[in-house]
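Support request from a user on the community tier.

User writes: "When I paste my structure tokens into the form, the page sometimes reloads and wipes my input. The last time it worked, I copied everything first. Here is what I submitted, just in case something in the input itself triggers the reload:"
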């Protein structure tokens, strides 16, 4: 879900309520991060609103600390322990993630569990049109993104030690049931006819294909670090929603960038792809399928509809928090207002042909 790039780029002084005891953290870093040497200066990244993220600056190196937020949280939410586990396993398998140094579950150090990883230098693009890249190079950046997601989906969870990272099979059914139940029980957020029809349609058309892979859950251009000068993905960030799930649903959620405007996510809707020299959705899908070693994604339109439902359900939850006065984000109202548009778009997509 998108905000303005300026709202997420760079660091600020540590915000009130998110302070860290630098002396206590320094002791832990000396004991757990090989080669660590202070003195330590701490800044907070503007992004990382879900799990507060900090830049740890020393004379010889910079690191990233990602922690659970302070205060009461829902069971299972903000699971930095899972983030650390998946990044460690993927790094050992050769997938591009920041090198993880250590996980700390001792809440006496910074107040909540956290982990420390390398700071990866490179480029993050907050605009899906990649305006900073030349027209000639733009297709290569898209190919790199598509191939990286396919590379993730090609990994065997058992071989990388993640076979118990989620449930095998039934991902779409579980997500549909859980999100539908949350939608129907949030009376303050209200019901929507298009959302109701979309839920019914999704339940009636679940594809027979039930493969399982490691899924990122929120793969977007702004969760990817590219090499400073080349169209090469050097690190994938933000593994909070990762699990075992259906790879085609994961790809379709990523491909929503072709269907939504920038105000919803980092989107390409209404962009002139030809003028920008950005691959079409069909060509982008072909790159993914070829890297995965398949001819095409069967039932691709279903997974697009499912992804629109999933995003609409997330926005509906924000709508409920706005109604209850518990929404913390300054952008919560605009996301709540976008819920009916997403529900309508999801229902309309059910009658359209797949580009795959």
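"...and here is what came back when it finally went through:"
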């Amino acid at each position: 879900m998108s905000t303005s790039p300026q709202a997420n780029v760079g660091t600020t002084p540590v915000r009130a309520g998110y302070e860290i005891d630098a002396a206590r953290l320094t002791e832990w870093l000396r004991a757990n991060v090989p080669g660590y040497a202070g003195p330590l200066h701490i800044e907070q990244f503007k992004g990382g609103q879900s799990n507060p993220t900090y830049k740890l600056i020393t004379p010889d190196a910079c690191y990233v600390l990602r922690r659970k937020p302070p205060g009461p949280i829902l069971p299972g939410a903000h699971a930095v322990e899972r983030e650390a586990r998946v990044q460690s396993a993927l790094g050992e398998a050769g997938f591009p993630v920041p090198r993880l140094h250590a996980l700390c579950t001792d809440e006496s150090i910074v107040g909540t569990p956290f982990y420390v990883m390398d700071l990866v230098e490179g480029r993050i693009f907050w605009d899906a049109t990649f305006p900073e890249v030349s027209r000639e190079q733009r297709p290569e950046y898209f190919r790199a993104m598509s191939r990286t997601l396919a590379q993730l989906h090609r990994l065997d969870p058992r071989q990388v030690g993640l076979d118990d990272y989620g449930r095998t099979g039934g991902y779409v059914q579980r997500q549909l049931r859980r999100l539908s139940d949350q939608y129907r029980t949030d009376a303050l957020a209200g019901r929507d006819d298009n959302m109701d029809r979309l839920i019914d349609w999704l339940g009636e058309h679940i594809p027979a294909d039930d493969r399982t892979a490691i899924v990122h859950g929120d793969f977007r251009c702004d969760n990817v670090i590219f090499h400073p000068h080349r169209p090469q993905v050097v690190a994938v960030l933000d593994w909070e929603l990762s699990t075992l799930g259906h790879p085609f649903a994961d790809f379709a959620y990523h491909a929503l960038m072709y269907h939504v405007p920038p105000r919803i996510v980092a989107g390409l809707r209404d962009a002139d792809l030809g003028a920008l020299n950005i691959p079409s959705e069909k060509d982008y899908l072909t790159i993914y399928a070829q890297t995965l070693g398949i001819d095409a994604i069967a039932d691709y339109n279903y997974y697009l509809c499912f992804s629109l439902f999933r995003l609409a359900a997330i926005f509906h939850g924000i709508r409920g928090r706005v109604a209850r006065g518990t929404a913390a984000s300054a952008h919560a109202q605009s996301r709540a207002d976008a819920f009916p548009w997403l529900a309508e778009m999801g229902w309309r997509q059910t009658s359209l042909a797949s580009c795959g």
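Agent notes: The reload is a front-end session timeout and is unrelated to the input. The CA atoms of residues 2 and 265 lie 4 Å apart. Strands lie at 11-12, 41-45, 53-57, 62-67, 100-104, 114-118, 213-215, 224-226, 233-236, 243-245. Escalated to web team.
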